[in-house]
Design goal:
The protein has eleven helices and ten strands. The chain is α+β, with helices and mostly antiparallel strands. It has two domains: 188 residues, no CATH class; 80 residues. The radius of gyration is 19 Å and the shape is globular.
């Protein structure tokens, strides 16, 4: 496992980032696709990203801004490449691999595409990745790694098949045929909690508690970190901030006024300042900045625009 090894380092001299004042109009560059119902407790979503069908974006629009995330992911770079901007990778530049594994991220990240790109990403609930692969997720927090070093031969064969698929729908079909029997087997063994999309953090805690009956609180906390990579308190913070963002974005998009104090109270924050601090810590931006950017033309916020 090499920390951030697969991602090349962004060269500010070669790719200066001007002010973000470009306004672009054209076909959508990103989509979020939900998994089949039987995999809803395994896969959070598929993210489809392509700028190949539109004129090349200006440099400031080729950034990719991601919030801190509890999820694990696999990303296929079908065309184009990716360089890390924030945080700066500690190792010398390397070209992006065809497939990149990422563990949960405790801080927001920013990457950059030197040119046009087509990428396909699947987000896994962290405890599902643990159940399917046996990885101790706590060892991969804030890490990027090579599939060849982390996953077995069956997973490697699957990633090659996805890379060779003719389109995104075929990629999803290959992934789901691979995951379905493995996920059902994991659930039958009791290795993975069955949960719906909206309550996965609560379900994780319940599963850990019921499978650790009679054990100490410290043992329970270790088990949750092995499954999900982060302590339960942090997972709840991430889940709460996501719900606050979605609520705010939807209100602003529909033209409704937003009462920040009410949002904070409804989502369990002590006050408005607490809400703002947590969202900025997780995303690097205020809720207002995020919501406005997500509904506008700034392509670097494409993840926030399509998230649901």
């Amino acid at each position: 496992m090499h920390r951030c090894a697969p991602v090349a380092r962004y060269d500010a001299a070669a790719f200066p980032i001007p002010r973000m004042d470009a306004s672009l109009h054209g076909p959508a560059t990103a989509r979020l696709v939900a998994p089949r119902v039987s995999l809803a407790s395994c896969v959070r979503a598929y993210l489809l990203r392509s700028t190949m069908h539109r004129p090349e974006l200006p440099r400031e629009q080729r950034l990719n801004r991601f919030p801190a995330s509890p999820h694990c992911s696999l990303t296929w770079f079908i065309q184009g490449t990716c360089l890390m901007v924030e945080p700066e990778p500690p190792l010398p530049p390397r070209p992006s691999p065809p497939v990149l594994f990422a563990g949960p991220q405790e801080r927001h990240t920013v990457s950059y595409n030197p040119g046009q790109v087509q990428a396909f990403m699947v987000l896994f609930f962290p405890q599902a990745m643990h159940a399917l692969t046996g990885l101790d997720i706590s060892r991969h927090v804030n890490e990027f790694g090579l599939v060849e070093e982390l996953l077995d031969a069956d997973w490697q064969a699957m990633t090659r098949a996805v890379s060779e698929a003719p389109d995104d729908m075929a990629r999803i079909a290959i992934l789901e045929r691979f995951l379905e029997p493995r996920w059902q087997a994991a659930r039958a063994r009791g290795d993975a909690p069955g949960h719906l999309l909206g309550d996965w953090v609560q379900a994780l805690g319940l599963h850990a508690a019921t499978s650790s009956w009679g054990r100490s609180v410290r043992h329970l906390e270790r088990r949750i970190k092995a499954w999900a990579g982060q302590p339960m308190r942090r997972l709840r913070r991430l889940n709460r901030a996501e719900q606050s963002f979605l609520r705010t974005r939807d209100a602003l998009t529909s033209g409704e006024p937003v009462a920040w104090a009410e949002v904070a109270a409804e989502d369990g924050y002590s006050d408005q300042a607490h809400l703002c601090r947590e969202v900025r810590d997780i995303t690097g931006h205020s809720l207002t900045e995020l919501a406005r950017a997500a509904r506008g033309d700034d392509e670097s916020y494409w993840v926030y625009r399509i998230w649901s």
